[in-house]
Amino acid sequence: MEQQNPTQIFEKYYQEWLSNPDRMKNGYEYERTFIEMIQQMEKDVFQDSLGKVPENKNRKKKSKPVLEK
Fold first, then answer.
1. Using a CB cutoff of 8 Å and minimum separation of 24, what contacts does 5-10 make?
2. What is the pTM of this model?
3. For residue 53, is it left (φ>0), alpha (ψ between -120 and 50) or beta?
4. What is the mean pLDDT of each run of 10 residues along the chain (69 residues)?
5. Domains of the chain, residue spans
6. Helix, strand, coil % over all residues of the chain, rounded to 5
């Protein structure tokens, strides 16, 4: 996955949020949808900065130890 500029990621989520008609139902929905958008955007920026994360770092190794004789 190619690293993206954080402003590009924000712009994508912000445009999606602006086009969501549910956000304008009332003040509660406005804040709730905004918070959800920011949290998802933060997660994507953080994941993008880390790169590919291994599936399970605690998985048992499949290599066999070399036994000395």
1. 6/45, 6/48, 9/41, 9/44, 9/45, 9/48, 10/41, 10/45
2. 0.63
3. beta
4. 76 89 86 91 86 71 70
5. 6-50
6. 60, 0, 40
